[in-house]
Amino acid sequence: MKRWEFMEQENDRGQQKIDYQKDKYHVGNANKGGAAYNILNLNYEQNTEGEFLKQKDHDSNVRALLRSKNVDTLSNN
Questions:
Q1: Degrees to nearest 5, angle at CA 34 with 37 and 59
Q2: Are 40 and 54 in contact, with CB atoms under 8 Å apart?
Q3: Which residues pair with 44 in a beta bridge?
């Protein structure tokens, strides 16, 4: 086995160890937020989690508008 082959195998093992730790122990996620929303630019992330959160927030706003309309209708007969 040549020296460069050995070095490549060591690099592969090191990368596999890092990937395993990221998956199992969530290493490297110390400053990552739990929500798919960026509070600095007030936008949703461009992935499936961001789209789900955006739809969930939109549905919540629709329900709030319906509640306010119902309260207005019932109180102003």
A1: 50
A2: no
A3: 37
Q: Are 16 and 7 in contact (CB under 8 A)?
A: no
Are 8 and 18 spatial neighbours (Cβ–Cβ below 8 Å)?
no
Q: Which helix (H) or strand (E) holds 24?
A: helix 3-25
d(CA 4, CA 20): 24
- Region of residue 26 (left: phi > 0; alpha: psi -120 to 50; beta: else): left
- The residues pairing with 37 across neighbouring beta strands, listed in sequence order, are 44
Specify whether the CB–CB gap between 35 and 53 falls below 8 A: yes
For the stretch 48-66, pLDDT in tens is 989 999 999 999 999 999 9
Instruction: Please state the pTM of the whole predicted model.
Output: 0.54
Residue that the structure tokens 């990552």 belong to:
32
d(CA 53, CA 47): 10
